[in-house]
Amino acid sequence: MTIAGTFESVPIDRVVYGRPAATVLAEEATRLDAHRVFLMVSRTLDRETSWVKDMRTALGNRYAGSFDGMPSHTPRECVLQATQAARAAKADLIVTFGGGSMTDAGKMVRLALKHDITDVAGFDPFAIRVTPDGKRVLPKFEGPDVPQIAIPTTLSGGDFNASAGATDTRTMLKELYRQPSMVPCVIVLDPAVTVRTPQWLWLSSGIRALDHAVETVCAPKADIRSYLEAVPAIKLLADALPRTLADPNDLGARLDAQIAVWLSMEHNRFAISMGASHGIGHVLGGTCDVPHGYTSCVMLPTVMRYNQDVNPDRHALVAEAMGQPGRSAWEVLHEFIAGLGLPRSLATVGVTEEKFETVAKAALLDHYLHTNPRPIGGIGDIMEILRMAA
Question: Can you say how many angstroms the Cα of residue 199 is from the centroid of all Cα atoms in its chain?
Answer without folding.
Answer: 17
